[in-house]
Amino acid sequence: MPTGALQGLTVLDLSRILGGPLCGQMLGDHGADVLKVEPPQGDDTRAWGPPFQDGVSSYYRGLNRNKRTQFLDLSQPEGQARVLALMEQADVVVENFKIGTLEKWDIGWQQMQSRFPRLIWCRVSGFGADGPLGAWPGYDAAIQAMSGIMSVNGEAGGEPLRVGLPVVDMVTGMNAVIGVLLALQERQRSGLGQLVDAALYDSAIALLHPHAPNWFMDGKPPQRTGNAHPNIYPYDVLHTGSIPVFFAVGNDRQFQLLCGHIGCQHLAQDVRFASAGQRSVHRDTLKPLLEEYLAAFDGAQLATDLMALGVPAAPVQSVDDALQHPHSLHREMVVQMPGGYRGLGSPVKLSRTPATYRVPPLARGDAFLPD
C-alpha cells in the first residue's frame, strides 16, 4: 500500500478539539506517522455528541484517524519527561494549548527551539501570542462574530448568523498544514526548524473575500445578502418548479445561455441585464423575472442540463444526499476503515502518492512506530 508523500515524517500531536487535530489528521492521511497525546481524561471532543459509538463521539472520530494515541499528564514531571523524549524523535509538534501553559511547564516552544533546533513547532491559537488580544483563548463561533464573518452571513435585513460549520477552526487547521509544509521545505535548505503560528483570528480575517477588497475600494460596510453574491448576479438560489437551484452565472455568455435555455432571450438583451455590472445593480428586478420562467422546469434536471451547456448551476442538496452522491463516492470523499469507521476523505489528490487510511481512530501506541 502506498504510504504517502509524507512517509518518514514523525508528528507529535499535542492538540485537542478541532484545528490542531485536523492538521494532524491531514498530515497522517498523507503518510506521516502521528502520535496523539491526550490528557488522562481524553480530548474533550470524545464527549461531544450524540451520536456515540462505544462511548466516543462521532466528532472525535472525524478528526483523529491515522494517529496512535497515548495519555499523558503534561502538568506532571513524568508526563513532561515522556513528552520530551517524544519531541526528540519528532519532526513536527502540533499543539493548541493556551499560550503560556507549556512554557510554564518548561516544555514550550521557547524552551525547545534551542534543545531541538530541527523541530518544527506548529502552534494553533485563537489570537496569536502578542498584540492587543494576544494569548486570549479563541473559539470558532466567537471569532466568526468578531472577524465580521457573521455580519455578512444571513438574509438581507435579518440577524447575523454563524456559518453552519466550524469554518474558522477548519481553515486554521488547513493553514497549519500549509505552514508545516512550508517550514519543512525551508528546513531542507537551512537544516533548522521554526515556529508555525496559525491563529484562528488571522484565518478568519483572511476569509473576508470579496467583502474586504470591496470595503478597501469604496469604504462601504458590507451587508448581508442571503444566498446572493455581493458583486455578481444571478449568483443566488432561485426557485424552480421543484427544488431550489443555486445559479452561479459569472459572465455575460453564461447569462445568455441561461436565458436561451429557459426561453427568456429578451432578458439578455435588456439594457438592465445585458452586462454583469447592470445585472448586479438591478438584481431585485431580475430575480422574479427569472423565477417566472424557471417555474416551468424541474430543478434537478435543469441544473444538470445547464451544467452540460456550461452554465454553473446546482441543486440544493442535504448533507446525506451529498455524501451519497455518485460523484462523492467516485472522488473517494467517503472512506471506510475496519471497525465500521466511515469518514470524509482527503480533498488533496496526488497522482503517485495518494492519501491512505491506515490507522482507525482510538488506536493506542507507545511511540512512533512503523505501520
SSE blueprint and pairings:
Blueprint: E1 10-13, H1 19-29, E2 33-38, E3 52-53, E4 56-57, H2 58-61, E5 67-71, H3 77-89, E6 92-95, H4 101-104, H5 109-115, E7 120-125, H6 140-147, H7 167-190, E8 195-199, H8 200-206, H9 211-218, E9 235-238, E10 245-248, H10 252-262, H11 265-269, H12 276-281, H13 283-294, H14 299-309, E11 313-315, H15 319-324, H16 326-330, E12 334-337, E13 341-344
Parallel strand pairs: 1-2, 1-6, 2-5, 6-7, 7-8
Antiparallel strand pairs: 3-4, 9-10, 10-11, 12-13
Helix pairs in contact: 1-7, 6-8, 7-8
Pfam family, one: CoA_transf_3
Keywords: Transferase
GO molecular function: transferase activity
Can you tell me about this structure?
By secondary structure, this protein is an alpha/beta fold. The protein folds into two domains: 216 residues, Crotonobetainyl-coa:carnitine coa-transferase, domain 1 (Rossmann fold); 71 residues, formyl-coa transferase, domain 3 (2-Layer Sandwich). Helix content is 38%, strand content 14%. The chain has a six-stranded parallel β-sheet with strand order 5-2-1-6-7-8, sandwiched between helices. A three-stranded antiparallel β-sheet has the order 9-10-11. A two-stranded antiparallel ribbon has the order 3-4. The protein is elongated, with a radius of gyration of 24 Å.
